[in-house]
Amino acid sequence: MGLMDFFIRPEPVSYGTAKGLNTLQINRIAADLRTARDKVNNQMAKRELLEKQREAAVKVKTEAEEQLGVFGLVQILLQKTSDYARQQVKVRIEDIVSEALNVVFGGNHKFMIDLTLRGNQPIAEYYLNDDSVITKLEKPDYDRGGGKIDIIALALRLAVGEMEGVDGPLFLDEVGKHVSKEYAPSVAYFLKEYSATFGRQIILITHNADLAEIGEVSLAVKRSQSGESEVSVL
After folding, report:
1. Could you give all domains of the chain from N- to C-terminal order, each with its CATH number?
2. Measuring CA to CA, which of 30, 58, 67, 159 is 20 to 30 A from 126?
3. In whole angstroms, what is the distance from residue 22 CA to residue 20 CA?
C-alpha cells in the first residue's frame, strides 16, 4: 500500500437542500433576524427619545440659570447700597418691571420685592401681583407665570444696567421667546420706547418678525442649499 492509502476520505454531508439548510431552518433564521432588527430599531428609537429629552432638559436648565443670574444681579445691587438708597432702588426696580409687564400684557400687574435682613445682609424675595392674585417667584423654578417671567427678567436686566451706569449698546438674544405670539408687538413697542427714552442702542437677535421690524436696520440670515449663510437687508 502507498502512504496515501492510510488516510480516510470524508463522505459528503447532506443537509436536505443545495444551500445546506432546509426551508424550516431558513424561515426560523429569517424570523430571528426580523426580531433582532426590531429590537435594534426599538432601542435606537428609545435612544433618540432620551437624547431629545436630555437636550430639552439642558435647555431648560440653561434658561433657568440665566434667569437666576438676573435675579442674582438684583440681589447684589441691593446688598451694596445703603439702607436709604436700598429702598429707593427697590421702588425703582419695582416700578420699571411693573411698567414693562403692563405695557406688554395690559391689565394690572405689580412686581414686588420683599426685603429682609439676615446676618446684616438684605435678602430679596420676589412676588408678582397679577390682578390681585399674588404669586411668589420661587427659585430655582422661576417659570411660574409663563412668558411673564421673560419680561420680568428682561426688565430687571435693563433696570440693573441703568442703575449701575453700564455704557454701550445692549445685546439681547431671543427676548420674550416664551411670550405668546399675540404679545410680541407689545414686546417690540416696549423695547423701542426703552431705546428712545434712555438713548440706548439695542442689538437684537431674534426669530420673531415683530421684533425684527422695530430695528432701524434689520438683517436676515438664512442658510442656502449649499450650506453657506446668506445675509439680506429686510
Report:
1. 19-166 (no CATH), 167-234 (3.40.50.300)
2. 58
3. 7
